[in-house]
Amino acid sequence: MTYKILVTGGAGYIGSHTTLALLEAGYEVVVLDNLCNSSPESLLRVARICGKAPLFIQGDIRDHALLDELFISQRISAVLHFAGLKSVGESVRKPLDYYDNNVAGSVTLCQAMAHAGVFNLVFSSSATVYGEPTQMPIREDFPTGVPTNPYGRSKLMVEDLLQDLAKSDPRWSIALLRYFNPVGAHQSGLIGEDPNGLPNNLLPYVSQVAIGKLKQLSVFGADYPTLDGTGVRDYIHVQDLADGHLSALRTILQKTGVNIWNLGTGIGYSVLEMIRAFEQASGRAVPYKLVERRPGDIAECWADPTKAANELDWKAKRGLPEMMADTWRWQAANPQGYGR
Ligand code: NAD
Ligand code: UFG
Q: Which UniProt keywords apply (predicted)?
């Protein structure tokens, strides 16, 4: 049987890589995206890579009528829910946009799913829900923390509402995937991350410095209690992340209830290690200066990926050199991203 999967936010960074992985694995895919942070070009490129295209519907997850119509016209088996806003700084300036898109949007989506009798959902959560854990590596049974910004709170609110939903109706089967730090791009160099304006995240910033679009990287904090004083994170290749979604999807199609899985590698790298690895992969210098800590940042954060390995039969396979080489290939071939 061929399953048809609805991918919200499927034109975006992680959604486009996962759409590609789904098509390659033989699923039919419907993408719903309002293109507020993406370009339809990403899906054209997906089709170029695999010779198959998803059905693309330009629209908003907050649009009740559109969702009802979509679920009537398409026989959807499960939803991978990526759509949402993701900039921490912007969420502080525009909290209502974040609660509206991320929380109200998820409520509308779940209402339409329940109405249509579709109960399988994979949600893009984040390691940010752990707050500032006192112990590393982070396991799924650690208590959720107090996120320091509206973006983080919106993710935790959606996790909580999905837990409540599953308690209220045993037909729901929900995966809460807590991503660590997604980086990299498809090895073809055709799809990748295309941030709007000045990048907030480390790797997009580093690659724009390497290509000469930005002058210098600011390293936020060199006085953390880490090996070299800079922040440590668990960077995971976006294709490993996409594969993790396919494993989670296969698993939730066979069970019910809520399952939480960390998607990370289990290895932490510092900002300075990342810079060196990127310089090596690209052959370009990445000038940087050490500056003050960025408010809200934590010293270190990496996953214990054992639960996903045991229950999903999934492990991140790609190491740092591949993450860097693929990021650079995408950046060098597409200096203006998708040219939005
Ligand atoms: P992205 O911005 O590239 O993709 C999100 C997509 O959703 C975009 O294409 C955007 O146009 C679309 N979208 C936003 N609001 C929408 C709405 N109301 N209706 C329809 N479409 C809408 O981001 P990404 O990096 O691919 O992240 C995907 C998901 O993963 C997000 O929910 C994000 O919060 C979560 N996540 C991302 C990271 C990360 O570092 N990239 C880390 C943890 C969690
Ligand atoms: N950093 C710099 N300079 C920069 C950007 C980042 O030094 O210009 C440092 C940060 O201080 C941190 C590391 O690089 O130590 C990684 O920072 P990112 O902004 O790339 O990622 P974060 O870990 O801060 O945040 C990411 C996502 C969030 C998510 C969080 C936890 O961007 O959406 O992981 O999952 F909430």
A: Isomerase
